[in-house]
Amino acid sequence: MARPTTGKHTSATTRLILGCVLLLVLALGADLLWASSSRFYSSLSISNNWSAGDSPSTTIILPQQQRPPSPPHKAKGKTVKDKNQGVTPERVLSATFADLPAPELKWEKMADAPVPRLDGAAIQIKNLLYVFAGYGTIDYVHSHVDIYNFTDNTWGGRFDMPKEMAHSHLGMATDGRYIYVVTGQYGPQCRGPTARTFVLDTETKKWQDMPPLPVPRYAPATQLWRGRLHVMGGSKENRHTPGLEHWSLAVKDGKPLENEWRNEIPIPHGGPHRACIVVNNHLYVIGGQEGDFMAKPGSPIFKCSRREEVVYGDVYMLDDEMKWKTLTPMPKPDSHIEFAWIVVNNSIVIVGGTTEKHPVTKKMVLVGEVFQFNLDTQKWSVIGKLPFRVKTTLVGFWEGWLYFTSGQRDKGPHDPSPKKVIGEMWRTKLKLAS
User: Fold this and answer.
1) Would 85 be classed as within a structural domain?
2) How far is residue 148's CA from residue 23's CA, in Å, rounded to a whole number?
3) By its UniProt entry, which SUPFAM superfamilies does this protein fall under (predicted)?
4) Among residues 198, 246, 248, 260, which one has the least CA distance to residue 224?
5) I need a surface site. Which of 41, 184, 326, 334 has the fewest CB within 10 A?
6) How many domains does the chain have?
């Protein structure tokens, strides 16, 4: 028997109504889910902090979860109040974990340098400190020399560098009149290096070209030793890979005696930002790191991009047989100290720098100690604290006073990560125990 037509019509209408209701419910659910998701992501606060030479960091603040009120709780001796619900415990990790115990020093602030600079270079000749190049900001580099006179504690005598000369990460050494300038980074951000080398006559303020380095390098260890200009280590052309090569060039009275650099024994540990010192007819290479910032691929301005770095405190000495010897390491790893040293009373004194990154935040940690390496005992000691932590300091010594200027200082007593590029000059009376 055939079913009535009206029954079929009623059944189809019912199914249509139910389908519409179901679609409406699904749409409302999706809308609610989207709205909830939008509120969540709009509550994320993302900040990018970057200054010249600093580690770019991204901080993400998540919305606080709703939690029932709880009784007051003490976290490491203090009560921490929750802005939304009750009182909650706070996990406290000291940001100054890397600071070493050190005696206080009395520091006196002197006249600021004409410009702030980071990754600059400095050479002292008698009572004058010649301060070269460096970043003003991550997007601006200096191309001139400022001079500080220790006798009357004044700045003056500014003059320009050659246009082709590198602006940061320089290798530099002096014979007491001539200053030899080797390779380095040309331009701001993380631009490429140059192999060009120059010599400055500090009496006439005239520059001359010298034979270029076989390949460019960033911040190689550089010194004059036994009539030859030695250049070793540094970072390779990509700014990150450590170089082990070691070259030398015979020089005298500001002139090269050879047309090409000579290969020497490779350095045991490559990398940039190390102190290189000649004393008692031995050559020392101290501290440094492997790895550095690199240019971001495809960036038209060679924007600096963070890469993994390993900081070390190794100490090597090149002896009479032209063989490297390993000596007592520094009290802690230290880098960015290529112009942060002096030699006084048969000791090497090193000021500030950077050490291993913070174990939680992974940010760069600046150094606030003054170290002494006694060449008689071959032992290290921590002899004082700086007024703040600072890297790439430019250091001098005159009539018992230890001076430092420029670099990048910390964010404050409780935050050792880099912040402000400075031009400040400070000094303290230095008394070294034998």
Assistant:
1) no
2) 79
3) Kelch motif (SSF117281)
4) 248
5) 41
6) 1
C-alpha 371/C-alpha 393 separation (Å) is: 14
Q: So what's the pLDDT on residue 362? A: 87
Other C-beta atoms closer than 10 Å to the C-beta of 398 total: 19
Q: Are strands 45-49 and 57-61 parallel, antiparallel or unpaired?
A: antiparallel
Q: Is the pLDDT of residue 214 over 90?
A: yes
Residue type, position 168, single letter: S
| CA pair distance 410, 417, nearest whole angstrom | 5
Between CA 198 and CA 179, with CA 212 as vertex, the angle to 5 degrees is 25
Contact yes or no for 248/229 (Cβ under 8 A) = yes
What is the CATH classification number for the domain harbouring 270?
Answer: 2.120.10.80
The string of pLDDT tens digits covering residues 251-289 is: 999 999 999 999 999 999 999 999 999 999 999 999 999
- Whether residue 275 lies inside any domain: the answer is yes
Write out pLDDT tens, residues 154-186: 999 999 999 999 999 999 999 999 999 999 999
Q: Name 91's Cβ contacts closer than 8 Å, sequence gap at least 6.
A: 75
Asked whether residue 422 is assigned to any structural domain, the reply reads yes
pTM above 0.90, yes or no: no
- For 373, other C-beta atoms within 10 Å of its C-beta total 26
Domain, as residue range, for 317: 108-429
